[in-house]
Design a protein that fits this description.
about 210 residues; mainly alpha; 8 helices; globular
């Protein structure tokens, strides 16, 4: 899908801004920033358009906030191209959001221990697997890796305490629970295999792998 090239658009915008501001030496940084901004805006536009159609805006918002925060710190499996990352993100978040909303009436009958149990499983996965840097941006020191590990565990602890306080009768609490579980899943070998499978499935030449979206 060469028609979707956020990288090329970002490069063009960065070069244009650098020329206008007479800061040609910063063109690369401006292009990278523009690429991230444009990509994020487009991804959010598509995701929330789907969420509005499916009437799951609240669920998707909570899922996005929790997974976005923790993923920034913990890392996880990635697709090899922007459009595959886009499709995978929209597919997984909208599916999770719809499933949580549809199953909420059933979740209400579950005891508080079920909510806590899932949260404990997620916490264990973060403790065991986080953090993970992308292959093209490895940690440059053990100190930095440890810092991200403790930032991840702190964020997970705060979110876990918050959802437990909200309780098993809260839709937001259950959404946060499954958001933490999903992000933890992307850290596991099985999670990497699942994302790689989607990446290959969405790749015309059927060559998959892992790199940052």
């Amino acid at each position: 899908m060469k028609e979707i090239s956020v990288h090329r658009v970002g490069q063009a915008v960065g070069s244009y801004v650098a020329n206008k501001a007479s800061r040609l030496e910063q063109a690369e940084y401006l292009a990278y920033g523009a690429e991230i901004l444009i990509g994020s805006i487009f991804k959010l536009s598509v995701l929330f358009s789907v969420a509005v159609i499916m009437d799951i805006v609240l669920e998707v918002t909570v899922l996005l906030m929790v997974t976005g925060l923790v993923r920034t710190l913990s890392g996880g499996a990635h697709c090899t191209a922007y459009y595959r990352c886009l499709v995978t993100s929209v597919l997984t978040l909208s599916t999770l959001g719809y499933t949580i909303k549809a199953a909420y009436s059933f979740l209400l009958f579950l005891p508080e221990s079920a909510l806590i149990g899932i949260t404990v499983v997620s916490a264990y996965l973060y403790w065991h697997y986080a953090p993970q840097a992308p292959l093209n941006k490895p940690f440059n020191s053990r100190k930095k890796e440890l810092a991200f590990r403790w930032y991840t565990l702190l964020a997970v602890a705060v979110l876990s305490i918050t959802l437990i306080i909200l309780g098993a009768n809260s839709l937001t609490a259950w959404t946060m629970t499954f958001a933490l579980l999903w992000q933890a899943f992307t850290l596991t070998p099985v999670g990497h295999s699942f994302i790689r499978f989607l990446d290959i499935l969405l790749t015309p030449n059927k060559k998959g792998g892992e790199a940052e979206c």
